[in-house]
Amino acid sequence: MKKTVSTLFLIVMISLAELSAQNVGKDSSKTKVISLKNGTEYIGEILSDDGREVLINTISIGKIYITKSDIREIKMLESQSDVKEGVYVGEDVFSTRYFISTNGFTVKKKDTYIMLNLTGPEFQKAVSDHFSLGIMTTWGFAPFAATGKYSTPIGKNTYWGAGFIAGTSTWIERFRFAGGLAFSSLTYGNRNYNVSVSGGYGFLVDFNPKVVVEMYYDGNGAPIERKRTIDRTGSAFLASFAGAARLGKKASFVLENFYYRSSNSQVYIMIPGFRFSSNPNRAFQFGVAGIFSKDTSFPIPMASWFFKLN
Fold first, then answer.
1. Is pTM beyond 0.90 here?
2. Do residues 276 and 287 lie in contact, with contact meaning Cβ atoms separated by under 8 Å?
3. Which domain holds residue 36?
4. Buried-most residue among 143, 154, 185, 302 (CB within 10 A)?
5. How high is the pLDDT of residue 81?
């Protein structure tokens, strides 16, 4: 069942991304998005500007005059996929993230956001147009990790990113554990419709392995003492397939698939859900993570709140 759902999702998301990529190819260099101070937005070509009024040939209602003092912003339409049924839906400001993983989309310098999960907070800041740094932790501040990601376009509608997560267990058993994850992502599509394939290699270091004393008895009933060391040091491979599809001005469908494999276990995780943006600086997403291992499976609710700080 899980393979069938994942395969169906793959087909749908690739189809959406290909359709989106075709739309990006259309000439939108003359098309503008005109945002008014009262919240109204028009899409069209500016025909004239006399300094007091602008004449716009809109795609929804035709030619109209707008007083310049009523205009909050004029910007270029980046992609035809940003328009649905004549309405500007814009780009998801948090489109570099899914539920857990990131993708290859670039960031804008000084962009800063906070992501609040049920498990804890995360802070991310773009220090350049291609590189961002951040921190993440739980509500108990353990573990605590630093993150970094570099991303860049590598072709038409194709983006690549690579980064790291490095952290420690902090107060849990007095900083006994430290670990990290190096990852890379390849993304196809645009910020409204996209698919991403990612892979990573993670490791955990146990600085203070525990020695457990176990008692056994021989055939004569004499006690035998044996010592066993519990060392959590290890490594694992992680792969993911994720994507997003814009459903309207305020809603998107998001889905992630993870495959985790270590020397003694394999886990598959599927997280479908939805994201809602009440305004360009806020978003909320929720879903359910299905955890599948060899012997068991169970669901975990997921919820995140995004807040853009600039």
1. no
2. no
3. 31-77
4. 185
5. 59
